[in-house]
Amino acid sequence: MSAAVAAFAQQASFNAPALRIASGDLIDLEMYDNADLSGHFRVNENGDVRLPLMGEVHVAGETAEQAAELFEKRYVEQEILKPANSHATVQITEYATQGIVVSGEVHSPGTYPALGVRMFNDVITAAGGVLQTASREVVIAHRGDPDHTVKVEYDPFLANPLIPQVQLLPGDTVTVPKAGVVYVVGVVGRPGVFVLEGHEPMTALKIIAQASPDRHESNLKQVILIRTDETGHRAATILPMGKIEQGKEPDVAVKDGDILYVPHSFLGQIAPQAISSALGMLSSLVMYRFIYQ
Questions:
Q1: Chain segment 43-61, per-residue pLDDT in tens
Q2: 106 and 204, same domain (yes or no)
Q3: Could you give the strand order of the β-sheet that contains 145-153, starting from the edge strand earlier in sequence?
Q4: What is this structure's pTM?
């Protein structure tokens, strides 16, 4: 393992923050040698629990350990217990939100049961795995610290994917954003969806190369780029890929939603009118094939 990979693995192997108590949770309080003060207590809508001989105590936002320290302090302050007999243990036995929410570019978004700690990869697998259109950067919001999201890199399509060793708890949220994509169809060996993520901008030449065009059957002199602008208008441009490969023409940067169509060589010279008439049909076919199937 390289130093860079090892460093990333170490960074990804962190524990989720301590889970904080919220309204609706059920906590189990055990006061040492004081069974009358022990029991199960439901946190009300105001974030309070009503304890024996003490009344309401606000616990929302506290961890189980902090709540135990708070109960010990209150029982001593009200002279109900002496410091030597005020040891408390608190556990969260039931969470108002028992599941982990998975949304975005996964096969089956939804809420998945988690009565305790679950690992990131187990939850993603339960959601059916990520789609081809998924971003490599996944966003995690922990219930115990919702204001500070965590981003982890996850790409299961790599030959040797690095799986983030991240712990998830009930109430956490995992969001898999949509990556920018380009669709390649026509006479190529690997038609499909190509994700636009990386340190360098992707170009038509790079995408076509990844799609493995058939050099004998495809017409690389007239690759068609179909692009939809912000108003929804589709426009087609003929790209002279042969000249681009030779450095005689500049390469073209591709954008999210672009379609590259590599025609068959027997089509010869493609008329602009034919391109215009095929725009709608080709765009609809591509979207249906790669999104709904």
A1: 988 889 999 998 899 998 8
A2: no
A3: 110-113, 99-104, 173-176, 137-142, 145-153
A4: 0.56
